[in-house]
């Protein structure tokens, strides 16, 4: 099924409309095609694919079936190309308009499902994790940018339309992951249609922190990498110090900074996560 709530990015012309805001509020997401153009995407891939600092800090998250996804997570944008994406006007402005408040960078991560071996992710809400971090309100979102083609065969994202209105669902540790209460999800699936989020490289999905989502294993010959940036609102400053930042003013840059940035090697200031600090994963689970 083709995902609904789709829009196409046009540089200099794109703006968040009332229709987009209403769709986000009613269904929990909007999808924007061609969000990164070919030149911007190649700049990002140059960093993600060739910088050993990122791969050095990656770790596997088991799914209970003997497979795993790999992830690298960092707290602050930094000054490299990926940091320019996290701080650029089109990402930040859209996030602020959808949430109705100033936002700051909560974290960025690279999710890696390798061909034939990449594991699945259980149904969950991002706020199921972030609630435990002391964020009192779900006034948060994630921006997922596809690095590779994302399709059913390589374990693309699956979402339910509208379950963010159910509020936060209890989350429990299952295998090595924190997952939403299975029985509650089954009931929600009966009233909120499921959609596969198939994306081309450079497409983006902006989704609410209470949107239920999952993804299947990668049984294909196609790698599936995704670049995800999470944002919290200034007024939702976490009340508990934890492994992600409390309110830190974000230094926004023009969209042109992505193309103009020449830093593809210096990762200083990003503060990569040590997975031992993250209580929402269990790396020893089988």
TrEMBL record:
Gene3D superfamilies: q2cbj1_9rhob like domain. It comes from the Eukaryota. Its cofactor is Fe cation. Coiled coil: none annotated. InterPro entries: Phytyl_CoA_dOase-like. Pfam families: PhyH. This is Ectoine hydroxylase. It comes from Magallana gigas.
